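Page 42, continued from yesterday. The earlier attempt failed because a stray header line got pasted into the input along with the sequence. Redoing it now with the clean sequence only.
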Amino acid sequence: MSIDTIGIIGAGELGQALGHVLEKTGLRVLYYDKQDDRTTTASIGDVVGSCPVLFLCVPSWANAEVAKSITKHANPQHLPLVITLSKGVESKFVTMDQVLQKNLPPGTPFGLLYGPMIASELIAHQMGAGVLALTDRQYGEPVKTMLAKARIYIELSDDIHGTAVSGVLKNVYAMAFGMADGMKLGANARGKLATLVLREMKHILASAHANAETAEGLAGLGDLLATGTSETSFNYRVGKSIAEGIADEKVKSEGLVTLKELEHVVNLSECPVAQSLNKLVYHYGEPKELQALLEA
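This time it went through. Structure tokens are written below.
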């Protein structure tokens, strides 16, 4: 597979950062975004028709729409490899691998690129890391080599559904770490929370018919430690703002959406941290319920 041109659909902070480091390696990068000042092409059709690899850097709730646009413009004889970086779910806990499977043209190779890739660090030429889970393994090495030149070091995986579930759970539990810090519970409490979270992630993965061990990898625990426990994480900031009583009720985040859909794959009573978050966000609970759980 020869890669000389890359398409970035969704030229926000992460999309621009990814495109920037790929351009530094000599690749041609085309951007498409609904905001005109972020777009370098006339239409999404231009990107789809010109690029053998497309990275989707849009919110998860936009993936179905983008996939349908790709279907409309793709050449059936030369289908692009479609890789989403979106970590989220649709209604009833439909993950991004399932969204792409449903909405892309039959036979389209696709995958997920999940893991610790903070946009500001990529721009500063610091390393990124992740898991690339693909439906077709033959694309793995070319993409891995391409990303390594941009200092993004990835592991290849055939476990696309396990990777999808691990990635979205990271966003949920990032809110829990934000809440703990918002209540100023300290590093010891954060340590206990980490053990509870890993246990719950494994349980939810098993309930979602995914490999529980993916929770320990870069798409799960690795991403949570790197991007889910500090101000670099939007979901962490959402959790912290809730604990501090300054949350904006109109905010929409991947973590909030996933939290609402968790009950479709697991009994929340079996996941005390997730249950506490659910009560707090959707049933007028109090942050002290999470604190009580950690002090038990």
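Notes: The chain has a mean pLDDT of 94.
Reminder to self: strip header lines before submitting.
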